[in-house]
Amino acid sequence: MDKFFKISERGSSIRTEIVGGVTTFFAMAYIIFVNPNMLSQTGMDYSGVLLATCISAAIGCLLTALLANAPFAQAPGMGLNAFFTFTVCFGMGYTWQEALAIVLLSGILFLIIAVSPLRSKIISSIPGFLKSAISAGIGLFIAFIGLLNVSLVGFGGGVPALQFIIDGAPNMAGILAIIGLLITAILMAYKVKGAIVIGIIVTTIIGFPMGVTTLPESITMAGISLGTVAFKLDLPGVMAKGILPLVTAVISFALVDCFDTVGTLIGTAKNAGMTDKNGNLPGGDRALIADAIATCCGACLGTSTVTTFVESSTGISEGARTGLSSVVVGVLFLLACLLAPVAGIIPSAATAPALIIVGVLMIKGATEVNWGDFEEACPAFLTIAMMPFAYSISDGIGFGFISYSVIKLARGKAKDVPVLVYVIAVLFILKYILTSI
């Protein structure tokens, strides 16, 4: 195992990889219940989507481990499931069966890109300062996710505000998250090994007397079936609704998946010192292939686009450096598939502190931007700011690429920008135009 995953070679250990995998799983386990809750609004069976979520996540994690030997976990992505539900189904009028077909087509498009020469050029073409900005932006983004998961930040008044009281009652989940944040921060300050996973466990235990953490009533698979959503794709129905909406939806899914994955790989790997001298992640191109295949499998099983999770950074921060960590996450997702009620014991209030802490660790990427050079400063700022503000890693990258290209063109420095950066900027512009029609 050590030889296969190159564990010692990368300065890690089997124990560290296991701890990293467990930490990552706990940080992203919320998707097991959030994803089916989101997709079931389209008419999909909740339990069927839950199984599809766990199995597709396991497939993605194992593919990443075997193809890329990287500590990145995959699962149906937040934002992408919202796009599936509210834009493709509710907005564009597709049925969930047709939407699954669109996800499959986007996965195939992504796979074509991933196996082509573009797969390595996509990552290597990104300027160094933008890679640093992406890392910092992801830090803010996942910290924002943590705050939103426990409703500590809400939009009840139309603008973001702290919510210690919700509907006249104390926000116990938010309060527990603050307690967990302080506990984890103290452990981190003392440099305790496994601080984040310890913080998750301790916060979960504290949640029992507070009424936030609850035990499942039973451990049973009764009534849970994958057959209600698996292989229900409706390709003929998609074709019948016209080419323009189909192309719009497919390109949107593919672009978001591609750049969410690229952004996560670059941002988290750079922060952890896993990149080479050029700022590229060894094996990153193969991670893209794993992501694309997992998306195709997920669509067939009955779930929205599978993508690389930014929560992987929680395990990486615990020292995970190889695919063994991803294997652990995949196995835990399979166990969660069999014992779904047990996986729900870990409340979002226990994982929110982990996300915020990792945000603290990743924001240091902003220090590597030359803020005195406005040609870098503006694209970097837009990259960092748009990720949490637009709730999208890909939109942050899009605004960064577009602004960088436009500013360089206006300054007469067009040759300073790689051709692929221009191509990506144009694709993002087309995406924004098409999704606005």
Would you mind describing this structure in some detail?
This protein is mainly α. It has one domain (2-434). 66% of the residues lie in helices and 3% in strands. The protein contains 20 helices and six strands. The protein has helices spanning 2-5, 14-28, 31-39, 46-68, 80-91, 96-115, 118-124, 128-149, 172-189, 195-210, 235-240, 243-271, 284-301, 312-317, 323-338, 340-343, 348-362, 374-389, 393-410, 419-434, and strands spanning 74-76, 153-154, 161-162, 165-166, 169-170, 306-308. A two-stranded antiparallel ribbon has the order 1-6. It has a two-stranded antiparallel ribbon with strand order 2-3. α4 packs antiparallel against α13 and α4 runs antiparallel to α15. It starts with a helix and ends with a helix.
On the 0-100 scale, what is the average pLDDT? 88
Helix content: 55-70%
Q: What order do the strands of the largest sheet run in, or round the barrel if closed? A: 1-6
Report how far apart the termini are. 52 Å
Number of helices: 20
Q: Estimate nothing, just give the exact number of structural domains.
A: 1
**Rg from C-alpha positions?**
21 Å
Offer a quick outline of the entry.
The protein has helices at 2-5, 14-28, 31-39, 46-68, 80-91, 96-115, 118-124, 128-149, 172-189, 195-210, 235-240, 243-271, 284-301, 312-317, 323-338, 340-343, 348-362, 374-389, 393-410, 419-434; strands at residues 74-76, 153-154, 161-162, 165-166, 169-170, 306-308. It has 437 residues and is mainly alpha-helical.
